[in-house]
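Priority: medium. Attachment 1 of 2:
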């Protein structure tokens, strides 16, 4: 791919902007030698204003989404892209969230520009375990784990029952749910179906990958090994 297109696709500017950056000598190799638009150079060897280029297409990131951010590009309030470098909004192919978390839910959100990987993760066939920690408005009654595991729970306005889900009690008003599907507001609606209300919801893990110590609002890129860990059942 021509350097102008490659750099423009990473969101650094339009092709016209990038052509101007070449003319201004802002684009160099790792030794600071000015590159020209029709030079050939490896991605890793390119510097813009002395800084390495953003990762190439095939990018996968893990974001610790805080409460109060929407998984959208256009919402009027705060959106997940506000937590990433501005350029990431302009990349082509687009960097999209893999599934969604509600505005009021925090936790692990994956984002990628790799459409095949995105489908592999969200595919019902993958049955990836998504783990949610819920803080509830009222004490658990005691029968919730059985109801959720039954495979018979039908949420309002749906016509197929939920797949069996596991629930672990973490406290009188705290529960950890492990789901293998992702219906709209699923956790909140599940607890509503058993007469409770979710006050806070957090997703610490997807498959074999955990947020660990990634602070809220921060993100990191995932390498091929981390991506494969996603598909390994958590211990
Ligand atoms: N279930 C919910 O209710 N909300 C989320 O954000 C994710 C799962």
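Attachment 2 of 2:
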């Amino acid at each position: 791919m021509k350097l102008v297109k490659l750099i423009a696709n990473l969101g650094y500017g339009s092709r016209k902007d990038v052509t101007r950056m070449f003319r201004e000598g802002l684009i160099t190799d790792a030794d600071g030698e000015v590159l020209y638009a029709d030079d050939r150079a490896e991605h890793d060897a390119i510097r813009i204003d002395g800084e390495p280029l953003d990762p190439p297409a095939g990018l996968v990131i893990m974001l610790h989404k805080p409460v109060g951010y929407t998984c959208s590009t256009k919402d009027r309030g705060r959106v997940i892209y506000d937590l990433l470098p501005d350029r990431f909004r302009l990349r082509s192919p687009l960097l999209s969230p893999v599934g969604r978390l509600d505005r009021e839910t925090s936790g692990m959100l994956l984002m990628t520009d790799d459409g095949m990987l995105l489908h592999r993760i969200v595919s019902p066939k993958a049955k990836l375990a998504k783990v949610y920690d819920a803080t509830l408005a009222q004490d658990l009654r005691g029968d919730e784990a059985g109801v959720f595991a039954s495979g018979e729970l039908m949420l309002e306005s749906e016509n197929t029952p939920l797949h069996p889900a596991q629930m672990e009690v973490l406290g009188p008003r705290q529960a950890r749910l492990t789901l293998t599907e992702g219906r709209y507001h699923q956790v909140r609606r599940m607890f509503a179906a058993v007469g409770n209300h979710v006050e806070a919801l957090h997703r610490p893990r997807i498959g074999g990958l955990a947020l660990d110590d990634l602070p809220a609002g921060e993100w990191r890129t995932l390498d091929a090994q981390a991506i494969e860990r996603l598909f390994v059942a958590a211990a």
